[in-house]
Amino acid sequence: MSIRSEPLIGVGRPARPVASLRAWLDSESVFSWLMMAPPILFLAGFVGYPLCYGIFLSLQDRPVAQPGVFAGLKNFAIDFNDPVFWRVVANTFVYTGVATMLKMVCGLGLALAMNQQFRMKNFVRAVLLLPFIVPTVLSTVAWMWILDPAFSVLNWFLIALGMPKPGPSWLGNPVLAMASIIFINTWRGLPFYGITLLAGLQTVPPELYEAATIDGASGWQRFRYVTLPLLQPIILIVTLFSVIFTFADFQLVYVLTHGGPQNATQLFATYAFDIGMGAGQLGLGASVALTMLPALALLIVALTIYTRRQ
Amino acid sequence: MESTSRRGFLKLAGLGAAGAVLSSRPISASTKSLTLLHESSFIKTYDEHFQKVLAPAYEKETGVKVTYELTSVGSLQTRVTTVAETGSGADITSNAFSWPFLFDEKYLDVSDIAEEAGKRQGGWYEAAKEAVFVNGKWKAIPFGNIGQLMNWRTDWFKEVGVAKFPETWEELYEVGKKLKAKDHPFGFELGHGFGDNHGWLYPLLWSYGGAEVAPDGKTVAIDSDETARAVDFARKFFRDTMLEDVLGWTDPSNNKAWYAEQISCTNNAESILWLGKRDFPEIGQVTDQALNPAGPKGRFHLLAPVSHSIFNFTQDPEAARAFLRWLTDEKQLSGWYAVADTYYQPFLHGYDNAPMWQVEPRNIPYRDAMATAHLPGWPAPASRHMAESVAKYVVVDMFAKACSGASTKDVIKNAEGQLKEIYRSA
Lengths: 310, 426
Fold this sequence. Notes:
The complex is a heterodimer. Chain A is mainly α. Chain A has helices spanning 15-26, 28-58, 74-80, 83-114, 121-128, 130-133, 136-146, 153-160, 174-201, 206-214, 219-247, 251-256, 268-278, 282-290, 292-309, and strands at residues 60-61, 69-70. Chain A folds into two domains: 15-58, no CATH class; 73-309, Orthogonal Bundle (MetI-like fold), CATH 1.10.3720.10. In chain A, α4 runs parallel beside α9 (174-201), α11 (219-247) packs antiparallel against α15 and α13 (268-278) packs antiparallel against α14 (282-290). The radius of gyration of chain A is 27 Å and the shape is flat. By secondary structure, chain B is an alpha/beta fold. Chain B folds into two domains: 31-146 and 304-363, Periplasmic binding protein-like II (D-Maltodextrin-Binding Protein, domain 2); 149-302 and 392-425, Periplasmic binding protein-like II (D-Maltodextrin-Binding Protein, domain 2, 3-Layer(aba) Sandwich), CATH 3.40.190.10. Chain B is 47% helix and 12% strand. Chain B has helices at residues 6-23, 44-62, 76-86, 99-102, 111-120, 126-132, 154-159, 169-181, 198-207, 225-241, 251-259, 271-279, 281-285, 317-327, 330-339, 356-359, 364-368, 384-391, 394-403, 408-422, and strands at residues 33-39, 65-71, 92-95, 133-134, 137-138, 141-145, 149-153, 265-268, 287-290, 301-302, 305-310, 345-346, 373-374. In chain B, the strands form four sheets. Chain B has a six-stranded mixed sheet with strand order 2-1-3-11-6-12. A three-stranded antiparallel sheet of chain B has the order 8-7-9. In chain B, β4 (133-134) and β5 form a beta hairpin.
């Protein structure tokens, strides 16, 4: 049975332009741009525009609620003369470097452990994701209690082992405060590393391990010459993401220490926020935030080139 | 049934759309709603009173619905910044600290309302003017001060023979040494909170005669013998009376330590007693409050004002002014103050002997502190530079670094360098 037995009068006439439009849309050069347009527009609107506006702001003397005045690189000069700014630079690099290394090493270990066969494997994998799923502010509040000497389970344990009361001041001592936020960041970011690397591990063909075993490779050699090279592209991508997220971390520090004690945990994002919002110096705040850009851009370019070469 | 042609429908739709556009224009008589931004209060009855009593009463009286938009604690400044920068989102906002000086160009002059309220309700405290008077104009209507005073455990002080709170910092230090020896240390915030650190450190600095900047608001004056004496005192006060953890404290920390019975004295708003009475009645019973101790140059307190401003881009300024005038009337104000148990100490002298002060006499020092309360940066007038110094914790970290072991000379030099950079354009 046909749906339309008689040709409709007049339908044939516009067929030629429609067909040509369809052919034009079907051409690869047009179609590919059409497919790319939504993400490009999204990125331009939500990443490109804020970035350009941030650059524009950083070149202005722009107090909140007042018109800006072009100031050239004055804001950056103020930053470079500010001793706290250099403390922030050092803090951010230490925080990002140590936390990323810890996440990479422990995440790989976690992935290797999760790749083994054991009972309730799926349940354990799901539980491991919890730190990553729980909203950062919520988990940070929990850590605030854990690290408060009056209520700390850690201090209770250490005092039980013989340490004098009230035990370590996790957030009052500058070194311990930095160590604490690195630890919490690692705890929070570990599942991301672990699960992503686990996915990578599961794509390694078992035949390669079998061949290596037949050739007499030890467990370490199988890891070194089979697992690691095949995981390398994934490790690079995960590291790239992790560095970006860690470098620009805000919530954890803002809730837990607000950059204290004495700026020992102050990072780019928290310092830029304090200057931009707290002091109402939008231009100066933008300049602090933008100084993150060259370091991150270099890292991203380097890692991308390396990945392509691989 | 009457039929409508396609052309007729289009005409109707066009007229409807034009009508909708025209009706959205600001027309005073048609204003039906206003939005007031506020930060969520520690005293829940305060917010509830506005939502359940004041807003419905105003709507009943005038037909104007007032939406009370609450933000979480600590996030109001971000919201006000967004509204001020985009020019939309609210008609009126509450302010904290020195915000009228930051946002003054976006706020309407409300001098007429402020002066009228002052005349009718006993006159304003000097501190009120210090908080909102920008370039000769009232840029906000002062509401109340959230004073930061001394909170102390009467039972533990009695254990070392002290029944009355010490008058001077040195006397408090001597008591603190004895209490720490009895495992009842003091706990004063030295970290990066937003109020409880400034609450005692600026008054300490002033009480020794120190200041960040000279009264001209330009000359950095932190490097002085007076500042050095204050820093030296803070170092020994921390070392001999406190917990090490206070160096990393933010604002909730001293409250937690208080209710955990970990500390015997701190500096906080009235809320510590309010919550204690409600949730920890045994602790509430042995909590008392006192003025900050005096130093060689007198006794001082931090001004932490709350005020209300009208954005200059509000669609109907007259409607917003009418509401603020109504809110500032004694009939409304007295009820709002009373439900908050004097947590917001009125800036109008007319309330100095209001019955609410007799509900909890332990709060009376908060009223008395208003006469010696100032914004950070005093004796210089409030400014954007002062706000930057506060946001960068220059004074807090000067004291905190000394308490961590740095020399007095180094911490003052460091603070002076930062302040000179901040005040360079003053």
